[in-house]
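## retry 2 of 3
previous attempt timed out at serialization; input unchanged, resubmitting
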Amino acid sequence: MAFSLRKSSERGSIGLDIDGRYLAAAQVNGGRVVRCASQNLPEGLVRDGEVADAEALGQRLKSFASAAGLPRNVRLGVANQQIVVRVVELPRIEDERQRDAAVRFQASEAIAMPLDEAVLDHQVAGFSTAADGTPRMQVVLVAARRKMIETLLEAVKAAGLKADGVDLDAFALVRALAVDSDEPEQAARVFCHLGGVTNLAVAVGSSCFFTRPLSAVWDEEDSGSRLADEIRLSIDYYMTQPQAKPIGEVVLSGPGSADGELVESLEAHLGIRVMAPAPLGVIDGSALGPNEDPHRYTVAAGLSLGAAA
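## retry succeeded, writing output
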């Protein structure tokens, strides 16, 4: 199974978020959730975003998919320390094969892991013109440890499911919550998902330029202060990147975003606007049952959007 950030033509795929605390599946079609299901996960199956027990997770996935009546095809997301995201700038290359070769050459210098142990993909995030008039392009390069991806796919296969693609949770998050605009973006936004893994992404418009999981947990004592410290450090690192834009606001999602006191605490510590929008952004979630927590489905819905476009 190839690691793929590109959109798939498979319209039957459902986004499957294997969060450390729960499973969430969502299928989006025509701007609305048409199918969804969620179930708590016992501790120990997934740790820090990585599969710790593939066999037990496979059994749990199998029973979950059967009970929810999920289709076989799923699109997965990952968020852990075994992922590296870098932005590289290259001359503008239209030929896809030549561009792939140029990106792979850059990866050998930009990615701090042996390429034979990694799976790679990239997205063109934008274009610019150098001072001398040369067309340039900004490319988001993603590398993930092959072993981590293989262990995840092993659990999914054991459940009788087929992975159509593996995406980044960060990309899915931005895809679900970013607001499309025809106007040039003057500021970047920080997206912070507060679930089983606390995951951060920095995006300009719908293009994600930076992501990292945070060690701070959102539901522990003094979590506002500790989360703010890690978010601030992440912003500082992002601002060292070429063509980085100033941060306009922090957007929260996931179960932790329903904690109003936490939202206020983060805003007070960071000194910039912190908001918790509708959990599914502009996606119509009216199909969710009255007992469903929509905050669980942000990433799953974003994964489905990546397959249904």
